Amino acid sequence: xxxxxxxxxxxxxxxxxxPDGGPSDRRHVALLSGDADDITDAELLEALLIFxxxxxxxxxxxxxxxxxxxxFGEVIVQTPVRLSEVxxxxxxxxxxxxxxxxxxxxxxxxxxxxxxxxxxSKALIRYCRxxxxxxxxxxxxxxxxxxxxxxxxxxxxxxGTIDHTPVYPREIIKRALELNASALIxxxxxxxxxxxxxxxDIAITIRIAESARHLxxxxxxxxxxxxGRHTSFKTxxxx
Length: 239
Hints:
239 residues, 10 helices, alpha+beta
């Protein structure tokens, strides 16, 4: 796909772009070599849209997407319905973006699970941010751990609204017993971007911890994921 005639290649090198509006040769080299730390949001979107957009006005779509949603992270998590508001984009783009997001989440999850989860806190936080930071509604995720703090299961327990998630301590404890879990890590996101725990967050966490303690199950932490930031109940002394 990258093979071109020498005449066309020479013309593209002078202009710094491809005829179809995709990234320049330099960006292709950076992407293929893995040396891509300096690639911008726009250039990364261009690289994806080459494969996902039937209409080849790639630069136009990049401009529209970033103008509507702000940055790469916000673009990649939009629903197909929201993406279809950009004239010319079809369902293939939504499918591609979902695949990219799921791939990033899966890689981060596997990295976090390579060893006992408490010994890889950076990998855990990275995974939680990738999985939850850009969600548009609140979600409560439970990480179930065995006696060696190895991950048994990672489940979204509840999905709520933009600023509230219903939490049922009895259901959480019931599921922990079904999995024979010895410990839990609670994780939920704040779509507002501010990870400061609310009074309700603190109250329900205390209830869950008390219920779990009676059955010999420990709550290691409750993480609140914002955009670019997170809060740890353990670090705050709330657990």
